[in-house]
């Protein structure tokens, strides 16, 4: 069934128009940085923190970085627009992190079996699924800096995934690693009715959205 | 992906139907406080919801401009209509329309229900602890109303406590109904006012802190199911304190928001 919008009588925009092409459908620009998460904010000490890339088969090789080892990898400082499924978008956010390409290259060299999909896993039990193609080619980072400062815990610190071209729940907070999988496996919100891919430009908010 | 694999995946996870936009009719409205208003909606082919879920509201202007926001459902499932309680934000663009422009008989586009984690069902075992701040009480109210609709035996088995933080007594949403619903020890309602309080106020008069949570909540050994909803600083603080008090993090479900206009 095609959507034929119902005109809200007497409604008109009360916001300044966003620059053309920057605001996906149904989004509005915010200058704040709202916080949304499903449970208490976990606090993991950097001394015990690590980041792992592994395959579906637990017996296969995996690659692990301590906090210091991750910090020793080349840093990138992407400036990107982010889009939350709860309708806010924030332009020109400034991050610091390590490219997922860098991490995957090291994991492959260590013999971690490849997969067409990833499931990111996090402190607190959160997971989210993404096609591998959405986290490669300079599109995704493990980010630990925001606006020139360490990433705050409520925003996912010490480190979160950053995949700005998809809805922001894909940019998993408190990320601790990636599992490479042959098939797509729905993560936390994806099992609860949210879309498996989550492209804001196609407005893929919920399961069933095309 | 080859066909066989595609079939296997399709069999395991059937694609759910798309959540369609539906034109709801405003049945009635109720001013709750100076800043909040409840809209009672009749939504055609509403599939039903669970307490704690929300809907998306979409407003489309004549020129095609559109705005969408999410609003929590305040009504219990099975009430037949769907109640949304909306906080009016003066610099917002959707909430002023919902609070000031819509009248009974008008239509408004909604789709939902949305959200599968911050939900409570009567079948869930264990005491129910609800902690809300400001309009964060709205999804908790759906749970309280759902609880009130369960039979006396079920209500005795699952006691509920609400701790509700508001600025002043005039900012307390659903105040009269909360007084009616209170039925200790099955239903206990504690209100804390963070700004002005009347001279004869007998409730709490400070921000939610550790001592207040300890006094209001069950001990962790009782394994309460906890739902916390409100502005980010309140939710961060309450959820952290609950974990420090020994509650299992996975039993503490949170919904955080900044104001959405």
Explain the overall architecture:
- With 210 residues, chain A is mainly β.
- In chain A, 9% of the residues lie in helices and 28% in strands.
- Chain A has three helices and eleven strands, in the order βββαββαββββββα.
- Chain A has helices spanning 67-71, 100-109, 188-191; strands spanning 28-29, 50-55, 63-66, 79-83, 88-99, 117-122, 127-131, 141-146, 149-150, 160-162, 175-181.
- In chain A, the strands form two sheets. In chain A, strands 1, 4, 5, 8, 9 and 10 form a six-stranded mixed beta sheet that branches.
- In chain A, strand 4 and strand 5 (88-99) form a beta hairpin.
- With 261 residues, chain B is an alpha/beta fold.
- Helix content of chain B is 24%, strand content 30%.
- Chain B has seven helices and eleven strands.
- Chain B has helices at residues 3-12, 95-101, 137-149, 152-157, 175-181, 210-216, 232-244, and strands spanning 22-31, 36-42, 54-60, 66-72, 82-87, 107-114, 128-133, 160-166, 187-193, 225-231, 252-257.
Number of E-state strands of chain A: 11
Radius of gyration of chain A, whole Å: 18 Å
Major sheet of chain A: size, sense and barrel closure?
A: 6 strands, mixed
Helix content of chain B: 10-25%
Main sheet strand line-up of chain B: 4-3-6-1-2-5
Reading the helices and strands of chain A in chain order gives EEEHEEHEEEEEEH
Q: Unreliable segments of chain B (pLDDT under 50, ≥5 consecutive)?
A: 1-12
Q: By helix and strand content of chain A, what is the structural category?
A: mainly beta
Averaging pLDDT over every residue of chain B, what do you get? Answer: 91
Distance between the termini of chain A: 12 Å
Question: End-to-end span of chain B in angstroms?
Answer: 43 Å
Question: How many E strands of chain B?
Answer: 11
Question: What attributes does this structure have?
Answer:
heterodimer; A: 210 residues; mainly beta; six-stranded mixed β-sheet; five-stranded mixed β-sheet; 3 helices; B: 261 residues; alpha/beta; six-stranded antiparallel β-sheet; five-stranded parallel β-sheet; 11 strands; globular
């Amino acid at each position: 069934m095609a959507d034929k919008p119902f005109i809200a009588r007497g409604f008109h925009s009360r916001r300044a128009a966003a620059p053309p092409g920057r605001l996906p459908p149904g989004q509005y620009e915010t200058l704040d940085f709202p916080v949304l998460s499903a449970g208490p904010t976990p606090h993991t000490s950097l001394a015990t923190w690590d980041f792992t890339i592994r395959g579906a088969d637990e017996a296969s090789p995996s690659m692990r970085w301590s906090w210091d080892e991750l910090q020793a990898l080349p840093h990138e400082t992407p400036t990107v627009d982010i889009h939350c499924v709860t309708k806010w978008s924030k332009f020109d956010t400034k991050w610091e992190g390590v490219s997922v390409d860098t991490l995957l290259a090291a994991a492959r060299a260590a013999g971690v079996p490849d997969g067409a999909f990833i499931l990111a896993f996090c402190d607190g039990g959160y997971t989210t699924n993404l096609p591998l193609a959405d986290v490669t080619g300079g599109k995704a980072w493990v980010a630990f800096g925001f606006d020139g400062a360490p990433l705050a815990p409520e925003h996912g610190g010490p480190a979160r995934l950053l995949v700005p071209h998809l809805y922001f729940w894909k940019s998993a907070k408190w990320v601790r690693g990636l599992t490479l999988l042959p098939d797509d496996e729905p993560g936390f919100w994806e099992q609860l009715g949210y879309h498996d891919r989550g492209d804001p430009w196609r407005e893929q908010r919920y399961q069933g959205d095309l | 992906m080859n066909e066989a694999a595609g079939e296997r995946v399709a069999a395991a996870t059937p694609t759910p139907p798309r959540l369609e936009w539906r034109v709801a009719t405003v049945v009635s409205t109720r001013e709750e406080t100076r800043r909040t208003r409840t809209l009672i909606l009749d939504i055609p082919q509403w599939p039903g919801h669970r307490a704690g879920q929300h809907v998306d509201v979409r407003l489309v202007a004549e020129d095609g401009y559109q705005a969408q926001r999410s609003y929590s459902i305040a009504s219990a499932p099975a009430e037949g209509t769907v109640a949304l309680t909306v906080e009016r934000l003066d610099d917002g663009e959707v909430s002023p329309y919902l609070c000031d422009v819509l009248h009974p008989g008008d239509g408004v586009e909604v789709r939902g229900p949305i959200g599968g984690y911050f939900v409570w069902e009567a079948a869930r075992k264990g005491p129910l602890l609800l902690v809300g701040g400001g309009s964060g009480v709205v999804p908790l109210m759906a749970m309280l109303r759902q609880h009130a609709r369960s039979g006396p035996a079920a209500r005795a088995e699952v006691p509920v406590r609400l701790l509700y933080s508001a600025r002043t007594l005039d900012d307390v949403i659903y105040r009269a109904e909360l007084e009616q619903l209170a039925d200790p020890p099955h239903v206990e309602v504690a209100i804390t006012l963070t700004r002005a309080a009347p001279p004869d106020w007998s409730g709490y008069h400070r921000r939610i802190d550790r001592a207040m949570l300890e006094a209001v909540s069950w001990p962790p050994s009782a394994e309460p199911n906890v739902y916390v909803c409100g502005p980010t600083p309140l939710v961060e603080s309450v959820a952290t304190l609950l974990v420090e008090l020994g509650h299992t993090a996975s039993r503490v479900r949170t919904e955080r928001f900044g104001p959405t206009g």
